[in-house]
Amino acid sequence: FAPGPATQFVIVNPSDGTAGTAVTVTVNALDANNNIDTAYGTDVTLVTDGSATGGGVVDIVAGTGSLDINDLVTETVNLSLSDHLTTGLTVTSTQDIVFASGAATQFIIVDPTDGTAGTAITVTIHALDVNNNISTSHGDDVTLVTDGSATGGGVVDIVAGVGTININDLVAETVNLSLSDHLTTGLTVTSTQDVLFAPG
User: Fold this and answer.
1) Cα dihedral value 145, 150, 151, 156, nearest 10
2) What is the mean pLDDT of the chain?
3) What is the pLDDT of residue 191?
4) Rounded CA gap, 64 and 61, in Å?
5) What DSSP assignment string belongs to the chain?
6) pLDDT in tens, 108-143
7) What's the CA gap between 198 and 114, in Å, rounded?
8) Among 103, 102, 96, 119, which Cα is nearest to 166's?
9) Residue 91's CB: how many other CB atoms inside 10 A?
10) pTM for the whole thing?
11) What per-residue confidence (pLDDT) applies to 58?
12) Residue 133 near residue 140 (C-beta atoms within 8 A)
C-alpha cells in the first residue's frame, strides 16, 4: 500500500533546546491518512517569530525536509508554514520550540538607581549564560563588595539566576560595587557598578 498524494504539510513537534544551540525542525508532506508522500518534492516555507534565525524555504525531498532553527534569546519560538509556491496543500500546522537559558558563565551587577544617604538602595545580581540570558537553573551565591562607608554588602542569595541585596550609606558619596566569587564557582565576577548616595 503506497502513500496517496500529499494533501498537507505538517511540522513534526521538535525537541526544546538551549539558547545558542540549533534545533532541527522537520516538515513532512502527508497524504489524507497522514502517511509521508514519498513521491512529493515541492518546497514550503517555515516561518519563525521572536529572535529566531534559520527559518525559510524547506527543501522537500521524498516528502520530507528540515531546517536548523537557532535563537540566542531564551524564549518560546512559534513555528508556522507558508505555501509560497501555491501548491494548494494545507499549511495550518503549527508547533513551538522553547529555547531555555544555558549554564551560567558570569555574574553581572545590574546598574542600580542612585539614591539618598540614609535610604537603602536595592542592588540586583544576575547569573547570565554566554548569550547574556538569565540562567534560571543557577543557584550558587556570590558576594557583593562595597567601599566607602556603605553597609549591607555581603553574600547575595541567588535563586533561579537572580538575587538582590539592600545597601545603605549615611555619608553622601559614590559607592563602588564589585563581586567576589566566595564559593569558587568559576563564573566571571569582573562586573562593576557604582551608586551615588546624594545628601538629603
Assistant:
1) -30
2) 98
3) 98
4) 5
5) -------EEEE--PPPEETTS-EEEEEEEE-TTS-B-TT----EEEEE-TT-B--EEE--BTTEEEEEEB-SS-EEEEEEEE-TT----B----EEEEEE-----EEEE--PPPEETTS-EEEEEEEE-TTS-B-TT----EEEEE-TT-B--EEE--BTTEEEEEEB-SS-EEEEEEEE-TT----B----EEEEEE--
6) 999 999 999 999 999 999 999 999 999 999 999 999
7) 8
8) 119
9) 20
10) 0.86
11) 98
12) no
- At 163 the pLDDT is 98
pLDDT band at 64 (very low <50, low <70, confident <90, very high): very high
Q: Note the pLDDT tens digit of each residue in 169-191.
A: 999 999 999 999 999 999 999 99
- What does the block give as the cell for 174? 559614590
Name the nearest CA neighbour of 112 among 150, 165, 47: 165
User: Computed over its alpha carbons, how large is the radius of gyration of the chain?
Assistant: 25
Quick: pLDDT tens for 68-88.
999 999 999 999 999 999 999
